[in-house]
Q: What sequence folds into this?
């Protein structure tokens, strides 16, 4: 009998063997299965430490496209796993916990986005990588926060553009490029909730600290920031800058790599406005754990599947992004 109430869990919820050395076991499984572990900077530190490669959304897509591993375990959120599968359909792609969604991708349902696009004939559609595969099939070129500005700049000045789904990033790029892109009104619940007041209080206590912000933050936060950039751009800035203290307005997972690369510098997470916590975490990104990573590699669950029809359409705007990024040396 079919149990209509059965919903597959986003991960295999079984205990890992008692007393196991998880790091060693994961490395052994990885070797045995010719797997590669790719992790986003917002993952828990222990996952970043065990990953073969840690990077931002662009770098993860670039690695997924070029790896010769048979299996990719994408420690990030579901759209990152989907992007890897679209780019490497012959490989098996896993995300340790498929409940790891993205509020920004969720803010842009494909059917509503399609109706939105129909209102603006003759427009080039640019979508942020934080979208479902279905939205990518409606897109002319995908961007990430690392290359969005340059890709917009690469289009003719007279081009009419729809940009989605992140409104804050779209507004920021409009302000940098003087364009008037039509914006979808989506947002990331993590970057939206940084508190201007709390950041200014921190700045009073640390007057020499530079404020670094991700362009998914609201414009009031970007206006008071010393530097705005993608996670990898913020990391690189922290390495090159002679400053010794930084207030960081993006998901706090990036502080792990910042501290590692800059042991003599101090990184202070910017606080959100709606909690007593000092830092701002993406609850989706933090769903992945070492235990789930182990089970995922051992039992090969949960796997990402994309229909051939969607894969064939969605790969075009992603490849276009990768080609432009390569030309630009990004
Ligand atoms: P980047 O990895 O492009 O900096 O984007 C941050 C983000 O919110 C990923 O979900
Ligand atoms: Fe999505 Fe925001 Fe989490 Fe990134 S930080 S995965 S944009 S919800």
A:
């Amino acid at each position: 009998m079919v149990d209509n109430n059965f919903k597959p869990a986003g991960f295999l919820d079984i205990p890992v063997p008692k007393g196991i050395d998880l790091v060693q076991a994961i490395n052994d499984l990885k070797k045995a299965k010719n797997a590669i572990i790719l992790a986003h900077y917002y993952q828990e530190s222990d996952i970043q430490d065990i990953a073969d490669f840690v990077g931002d959304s662009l770098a993860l897509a670039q690695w997924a496209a070029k790896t010769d591993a048979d299996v990719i375990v994408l420690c990030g959120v579901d759209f990152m796993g989907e992007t890897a599968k679209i780019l490497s359909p012959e490989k098996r792609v896993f995300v340790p916990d498929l409940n790891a969604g993205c509020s920004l991708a969720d803010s842009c349902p494909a059917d509503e986005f399609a109706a939105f696009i129909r209102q603006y004939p003759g427009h080039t559609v640019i979508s942020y990588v934080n979208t479902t595969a279905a939205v990518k099939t409606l897109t002319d070129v995908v961007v990430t926060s690392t290359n969005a500005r340059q890709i917009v700049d690469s289009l003719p000045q007279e081009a009419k553009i729809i940009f989605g789904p992140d409104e804050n990033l779209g507004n920021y790029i409009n302000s940098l490029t003087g364009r008037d892109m039509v914006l979808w009104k989506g947002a990331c619940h993590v970057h939206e909730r940084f508190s201007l007041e709390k950041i200014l209080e921190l700045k009073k206590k640390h007057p020499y600290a530079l404020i670094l912000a991700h362009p998914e933050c609201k414009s009031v936060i970007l206006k008071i920031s010393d530097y705005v950039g993608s996670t990898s751009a913020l990391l690189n800035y922290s390495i090159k800058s002679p400053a010794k203290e930084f207030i960081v307005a993006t998901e706090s997972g990036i502080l792990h790599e910042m501290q590692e690369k800059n042991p003599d510098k101090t990184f202070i997470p910017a606080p959100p406005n709606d909690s007593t916590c000092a830092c701002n975490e993406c609850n989706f990104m933090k769903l992945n754990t070492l235990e789930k990573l182990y089970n995922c590699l051992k039992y090969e669950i949960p796997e990402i599947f994309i229909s051939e029809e969607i894969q064939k359409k969605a790969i075009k705007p992603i490849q276009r992004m990768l080609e432009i990024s390569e030309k630009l040396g990004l």
Q: What stands out?
A: The domain at 104-189+315-328 is CATH 3.40.50.10800 (Rossmann fold). The chain has three domains: 22-100+285-307, 104-189+315-328, 194-269. The pocket of iron/sulfur cluster (ligand 2) is lined by residues 42, 77, 102-104, 130, 188-190, 251, 282, 284-285 (CB under 6 Å). The mean pLDDT is 95.
